[in-house]
Amino acid sequence: MSSEVSRRSIGARPNPDAADAILDAAASLLQRKGLRGLTTDAIAREARASKTTLYRWWPNRGALLLALYVRRKGSSVHEDTGSLIQDVARTYERVFRTWQNEGQLFSLIIAEAQHDDGVAEALVAFRKERVDDWLPVLRRAEERSELVDGADLEALAESIVAHAWFYLITRRLGSDPAILAARVIGPWLRKNR
Amino acid sequence: MSSEVSRRSIGARPNPDAADAILDAAASLLQRKGLRGLTTDAIAREARASKTTLYRWWPNRGALLLALYVRRKGSSVHEDTGSLIQDVARTYERVFRTWQNEGQLFSLIIAEAQHDDGVAEALVAFRKERVDDWLPVLRRAEERSELVDGADLEALAESIVAHAWFYLITRRLGSDPAILAARVIGPWLRKNR
């Protein structure tokens, strides 16, 4: 769902090649100059694109950073293993691996969001998308009668995402994803009752 | 428990007045020069203390930042209202108010921790303390038979803390603390089953 997420995140607009070229330029800048070198001006220069074009795709630097992150991490489709704990464990495993490998881009986005309003706005929207992505997975679990009656799916989705981000910011990506999934999902499961 | 937390966080050592003077100096520097001006050298100069003294109290800049934060936010004793959801709601309410009022110090600590190993180390230790602080509260709830049988108290404590920090980093401190508490604690309550 990478392309779908991208389309949703950054808006459906013509010429995705141009967007890709701009993200390439941003990635190259980031590699060479770090996060502080990644200004809209510098990206426009590097990509030989107008700032208007940049803004048309990404309303602020945070949105562009997140698009870069989404492109790097690739698909974020949640698996359908037939077991919610398994689905969550697989995602935690994949996400923790990505976070360990792609040069901390996402944790830097979180850091930037703490003092840059544009990045914060993009992160807030990104959180909402990540939570929403879990809802169909949780509905499947509900249909399989895995969950307690009347489970608040949105609260559960948020808990899944909150724990992942919490583990990232407190540097515990080496934790066992299956154990974490069981801790997060456990109290929501009917069979535990 | 402010003093108790401080003692535990930074080690029980003589002459707390000297520590206070150093924290005063750090607070003043932070106010005037921002986080980047808050180096060990600058603090030592400002407080007319030796760097050795600083290091004896706080092994790194992150530990000092957290001590400053703990001193500012004051007591973090969790209330005993006789209801776990209430206890958690009260804490969320107090903590969110602190986070909104004290100039984002804690979110800046989280940001710094993403690229400063000393701050990260201090934040990891701080997380552990915050989780441990919840355990007696959860044991009380267990004794009142509020919780499902065999509830993993450590997992629940972590979830309480994870959600608070998640709301901070995604800028939702205006959320209703009672609703959040009910969302986080709900699935762990026996009466819901």
From TrEMBL, chains A, B:
Molecular-function GO terms, alphabetical: DNA-binding transcription factor activity; transcription cis-regulatory region binding
Keywords, alphabetical: DNA-binding, Transcription, Transcription regulation
DNA-binding region location: 39-58
HTH tetR-type domain location: 16-76
InterPro entries: Homeodomain-like_sf, HTH-type_TetR-like_transc_reg, HTH_TetR, Tet_transcr_reg_TetR-rel_C_sf, TetR_C
Pfam families from the UniProt entry: TetR_C_11, TetR_N
Protein name: AcrR family transcriptional regulator
